[in-house]
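tl;dr need the bound structure. longer version: we got a ligand (NAP) that a collaborator sent over and nobodys looked at where it sits. i said id run it. heres the input, straight from their email, havent touched it
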Amino acid sequence: MTDHDRIPHAPLAGVLGWPVAHSRSPRLHRHWLHRYQIDGDYVPLPVAPENLEQVLRALPRMGFAGANVTIPHKEAVLKIADIVTDRASLIGAANTLIFRDDGKIHADNTDGYGFVTNLTQSAPHWHPESGAAAVIGAGGAARAVVASLLEAGVPELRISNRTKLRAEQIKAEFGAKIVVYDWAQAGNMLEGATTVVNATSMGMTGKPPLRVPLDALNRDALVTDLVYTPLITDFLKEAEQRGCEIVDGLGMLLHQAAPGFERWFGQRPEVDDALRDAVL
Ligand code: NAP
């Protein structure tokens, strides 16, 4: 792309999904744009899978500095992007794209960053290296959580998933610290774990509840849920009743958005209560 192709324009960004109307990202980024008085916009971009590549190639010519990517495009963009970060490639999905001045599409995954930053900000006493982590689920979000927990220094990472093969795949790709538990034994992996994560979609409004027994849960464990509708899931409620510190999943959504905003609009944004209120 040449300089002539770049339209002098207030920077634009958006979220590509199909459907995308449910996404909270426009509200989130517009809150920051307003707050930092940046002349730009962030829009929902409903794009069918068969049109993804064509749309991605056109967006930089329309003044877009980058985009977020959501279901069902998170894996497909890896094949279209010119540059894929190691972490996006290990996770097997990207959620943040940067359209570079040289015309190249750069793909990254900031979900793991959002996950860990949410925990460190919401629970400053949390020490990932203090004990085993237990992750329930082995989907795309779980892969980002696993990558970030290993990077944060957990000594052992236990994982259980309804479809065991997906958990075994994670063990094969992420290495020796991973221990796979049968789905029927998922409750057992909570024993002695100091970080416990629900990375399934169970417990989400309209979905069945998470049915992993919490009897073995240690009261010193930090418990978090990626589901944020409802904000406090039954899983988090029960963990809190058992004396555990809990962290809801909304903070992960807010923090994963910050690196993209900074790259597109040139301002490192703050995640605070005003942003939470705006998104809720
Ligand atoms: P995904 O790739 O579709 O994975 C879904 C996971 O849930 C899999 O582990 C799946 O198990 C499990 N699951 C679904 N229904 C189940 C059931 N009835 N019984 C047992 N397990 C079931 O989805 P994802 O992208 O990883 O997202 C997972 C959740 O995280 C979603 O609720 C999503 O909204 C949330 N999320 C939140 C954030 C945030 O910022 N807070 C970011 C990303 C995702 P199988 O493999 O056996 O199907």
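gonna send this back to them w/ a short note. Residues 111, 114, 137-142, 161-163, 166, 199-202, 204, 208, 226-228, 249, 252-253, 256 surround NAP (CB under 6 Å).
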